[in-house]
Queue: 2 jobs
Job 1
Amino acid sequence: MIRYAMTCDKNHSFESWFASAAAFDKLQGAGMVQCSICGSVSVTKSLMTPALQAQARPPEAPLSTPGTRAEQALAEMQDRGGIGICRPVLCGRGAGDPRGRRA
Ligand SMILES: [Zn+2]
């Protein structure tokens, strides 16, 4: 459902719900969108009502929390060897450590 604020040719403002933007266009094209005050079918669609915009996500959404949890999950997978990245502790003691080998 979508809510439109509309204005008729007599400058009445009203709101109405439609199934979709396409449904509104279809109804208006068929002359089935009427002013709720005077019944005029000469209505124009105004901007979206503020009530709809208020439902938008606030910009201060806690994006860091899910990201941190995803990183933790990834780190756990790496710890179990699931991704094939060696752990720093093992690498430091490994035979391939250049610091531990002097030719
Ligand atoms: Zn009207």
Job 2
Amino acid sequence: MNLSTTEADVIVVGAGLAGLVATAELVDAGKRVLLVDQEPAASLGGQAWWSFGGLFLIDSPEQRRMGVKDSLELATQDWFASAGFDRDDDAWPRQWASAYLDFAAGEKRAWLHQKGVRFFPVVGWAERGGYTALEHGNSVPRFHITWGTGPSLIEPFVTRVREGMQAGLVTTLHRRRVDELILDDGAVVGVRGSILSPSSADRGQASSREVIGDFELRASAVIVASGGIGGNHDLVRAHWPKRLGTAPTHLLSGVPAHVDGRMLGIAEQAGARLINADRMWHYTEGITNWDPVWAAHGIRILPGPSSLWLDATGKRLPVPLFPGFDTLGTLEYLQKTGYEHSWFVLTQKIIEKEFALSGSEQNPDLTGKDLPLLAKRITPGAPGPVEAFKEKGVDFVVADSLPELLAGMQKLSPDVKLDFAQIAKEIVGRDRELDNDFSKDAQINAIRQARSYRGDKLIRVASPHKLLDPKAGPLIAVKLHILTRKSLGGIETDLSARALGSDGQPVPGLYAAGEASGFGGGGMHGYRSLEGTFLGGCLFSGRTAGRAVATAL
Ligand SMILES: Cc1cc2nc3c(=O)[nH]c(=O)nc-3n(C[C@H](O)[C@H](O)[C@H](O)COP(=O)(O)OP(=O)(O)OC[C@H]3O[C@@H](n4cnc5c(N)ncnc54)[C@H](O)[C@@H]3O)c2cc1C
């Protein structure tokens, strides 16, 4: 094949979930696709392969079986309360949000099910909010874990793309980095870029950027599905919004280096409008990976609600900033304390039941569909990967007494003086609130209330106990860092995934999907997410883009 002038119906930039879904749709429609990615074939699937596979579904059979009553109306109330849309630029994001909610309450599950995707029966409760009915958070559990996590979610789309390759419809071009969109009379008609040197980098590892040639491809349409900016800390800091305090100096990366945001600027040069760049979704429960795959590799703890959350000096975070309640509310609060790290203080009993680590590789039972290993989640002892972090992670302190714990915490944070007396007071005061079955402590009440949901009681929320009860020990402290993950803004698109220009009109030939398009519209989440909505946003916007291009050609 002559790579200098290859032609096809469509070029898809990015072989992550959004690009794979779009390509699979185009194969279904019999279109010829060039699927271009800067990474080697080993990284096919992008971030989604690494993901936990958590999907937001509304009123699913899994929810109903767990006794959860959900509805499109309730989910819409939650979504719009969390999104807080408040800009003129939110016109398309609002429409995408409504369309996505219809998808999540409608055909999303059946469409995935028919492709062989299955779900773990216990639905998780992410972003619990803790405010009033019309404020941020999920009123009910909606986080459905894909059986087999991220790798099983991408599998049907990878299979369809491979079938397309066999049928001569799809050509995948790895190590091709797009540097420019080719314009002809205002229309996008192809891409130009650099051929990168072959790389034996394993999945997720940074691959070399050595250029060994250039390429040019032409097609009737280009779909940009190049992901977000989370791997590019300079860009994250450049777009850091004032409302979240000062931009952090120390960041862990929750995504591989290829999530570099470069393609967004390239799309902008071709006339696409970027909106909501200041909206991002980063976590405050990041821990340093003791076994890193990429630089500054951090893992997010998906926490249950029981750990005591302290700022860097040892002061307890205010209501309702409990673990798993309000991601950005906590980030905003912490950034305004003047310190970037914070602490969880917990017990062995809590870590065993409440610590889940986000990422396919951190959940070998769910990822490997290994039932005997999975059964261990309800027996004593923390899951293997959590135990490994406890033993080998640099952010963990394990101690048999409070003074020993505090000394260990201070050692991990030599530059910030911990107020030992304050921490002891917080812990003893909190423990006193457990002498009755009722309490004034909002976190303890939240823990008790969570356990009235069967799924939480079963596998997610430890029975309330005193942190200083030796039977629940040893005591554990975890130093938490800010971890970059998702961009909520991106290329503005209409409901057909057509990229829009500054005049509000579609840029002919240009489409966008996945994180590059703010998961649809240029930011369908608004300011905040209800979780499990990113993979779903890639499925929906990738499908929309593929179908829209197929219809337009
Ligand atoms: C550890 C982890 C856990 C997660 N867990 C969840 C979860 O449980 N639920 C959820 O909803 N979301 C989760 N997410 C988020 C979700 O996985 C991502 O938002 C989503 O997969 C993004 O997909 P994408 O296709 O838009 O982009 P990506 O996966 O980033 O793919 C983009 C592709 O484009 C390529 N590319 C970029 N620029 C160029 C260029 N110039 N030329 C050629 N190629 C280019 C990249 O190499 C990459 O392969 C998680 C993410 C991670 C990392």
